[in-house]
Write a structure and sequence with these properties.
Layout: H1 8-23, H2 28-58, H3 71-106, E1 110-114, E2 120-123, H4 125-131, H5 135-138, H6 143-146, H7 150-158, E3 165-168, E4 176-184, E5 188-195, H8 197-232, H9 243-271, E6 279-281, H10 283-298, E7 303-308, E8 312-316, H11 318-334, E9 341-349, E10 352-359, H12 381-386, H13 393-403, E11 407-413, E12 417-423, E13 429-431
Parallel strand pairs: 7-9
Antiparallel strand pairs: 1-2, 1-5, 3-4, 4-5, 6-8, 8-13, 9-10, 10-12, 11-12
Length: 433
């Protein structure tokens, strides 16, 4: 049981009780009046401490908290302890927040915290310099009001956080930024902005170098291949022992010529960042050509089936689309044993046209799938070289997909074959009447 302390209430109650005994036989009215007066005084003391509590809450301070009396002494003691604990927590939180702010300011990337309405709550100094905003002036302003860029607005409203957006600076066309949205909290976002100007310059130098070298190599290679083909037709002019060497030279020069052509194509596609044209492609004719060239590559050693929905056409760059489709089919041929099945499908799903290649080949380790579209990446280098692969096919496909706002999906299992799928956006669809 809790100890009953001798406080004001019990004193008043005892006095009232004694008064009733003393006055009970003389005057009941006087005793009752005295009892009510005691209760009133008791209630008045509570009102006083409530007043003191209210006054203290308006300006709380540990040094000015009242001592109280009776039950109020305990209440103020609890308040003192809780306020002290809260003040300590607040101090620790302020210290932690200060460290976070210092760390955020030290990060070279721009960071902006956005609320559920995409309004600026906070940003660091690098973001102010990159995006031309001021926290003191632009706080609580919608970010899309300050960055009036159509592509940025679409990216912001898309609510997809699995990709980045590249933008050219609207203040200085010589600077490029990469923007990434990261969700956090309930419905907040972090906008991370990175200056990729130097990276873009380095990539441009590398592309130009590869394009120039490839272009310079193309002419002498064409001459070499031409002479080798001429010599190979003059079999009677050579010793039988030299013919295999001549054939090997011709194969390797053909392979090098194919590599140069792929490098030039990749360089051309990469240097053109603009979306591809929206010209209607006759898919029936395109697939007839695909069928013929696929069988030539396969040398009729695979079962190549093509399923085509003739009611849908694609709006795009015909030469690039043909190159992407043929690269996927040739990739399937390269990694499928003789007698294997290869299915090419052209159809529509959810109002989005797609091209899909399925094979019964050797399959791909799931860990390697993210690297497949890298330049010169090969699952099996020896196999790829022997089959004439350059390691650039899927990289070309990736950049053609970017130009057509398409997505490439890859599924594969070791020993169970692979599935490559290009999904085009709805605006690239054309339905035949």
């Amino acid at each position: 049981m809790q100890d009953i302390r001798w406080n004001t209430f019990w004193v008043l109650l005892l006095v009232s009780f004694l008064s009733l005994i003393f006055w009970g036989f003389k005057s009941l009215e006087v005793a009752l009046f005295f009892f009510i007066s005691c209760i009133f005084v008791y209630l008045l003391s509570h009102v006083y401490w409530i007043y003191r509590l209210n006054k203290w809450l308006k300006n709380p301070n540990l040094s000015t908290i009242p001592n109280g009396s009776g039950i109020w002494e305990e209440i103020f003691a609890i308040l003192y302890r809780e306020y002290r604990k809260q003040k300590k927590s607040k101090s620790e939180l302020t210290t932690t927040l200060g460290r976070f702010m210092t760390a955020a300011e030290a990060i070279p990337d721009g960071i902006i915290a956005l609320n559920q309405n995409n309004e600026i709550e906070w940003c660091n100094k690098p973001s102010e310099k990159m995006l031309d905003i001021q926290l003191t002036k632009d706080i609580n302003q919608p970010i899309n009001y300050l960055l009036r860029e159509t592509r940025f607005t679409e990216y912001l409203n898309d609510n997809k956080y699995d990709g980045t957006l590249k933008l050219i600076s609207w203040r200085n066309s010589g600077r490029s930024f990469e923007i990434l949205l990261v969700p956090f909290g309930v419905s907040q976002k972090l906008l991370i902005c990175r200056d990729i100007t130097q990276i873009e310059k380095n990539d441009s130098i590398k592309r130009d170098f590869i394009a120039n070298v490839s272009h310079e190599l193309k002419t002498p290679l064409t001459v070499i291949v031409g002479f080798l083909e001429t010599l190979s037709e003059m079999k009677n002019e050579f010793n039988v022992k030299t013919l295999p060497y001549l054939q090997m030279m011709l194969e390797q020069s053909d392979r090098m010529k194919k590599l140069v052509e792929d490098l030039l194509q990749l360089s051309s596609i990469e240097s053109n960042a603009a979306p591809a044209e929206k010209k209607e492609i006759d898919m029936t004719e395109l697939f007839k050509k695909l069928k013929k060239d696929s069988e030539f590559l396969s040398r009729k050693s695979h079962k190549i089936n093509m399923s085509i929905n003739k009611n849908i056409a694609l709006l795009g760059h015909e030469k690039e689309i043909y190159s992407a489709f043929l690269n996927l089919i040739s990739n399937a041929i390269r990694y499928t044993k003789k007698g294997g099945n290869i299915n090419a499908i052209w159809d529509i799903k959810d109002q989005k046209p797609f091209f899909e290649v399925q094979d019964s080949g050797i399959g791909i380790d799931e860990k390697l799938i993210p690297r497949l579209t890298e330049r010169f990446f090969r699952i099996d280098a020896d196999r790829s070289r022997n089959s004439g692969g350059t390691g650039l096919g899927l990289s070309i496909v990736k950049h053609i997909c970017i130009r057509h706002q398409a997505q490439i999906e890859i599924y594969s299992q070791i020993g169970k074959g692979s599935q490559f799928k290009i999904i085009f956006p709805q605006e690239r669809l054309s339905l035949k009447k």
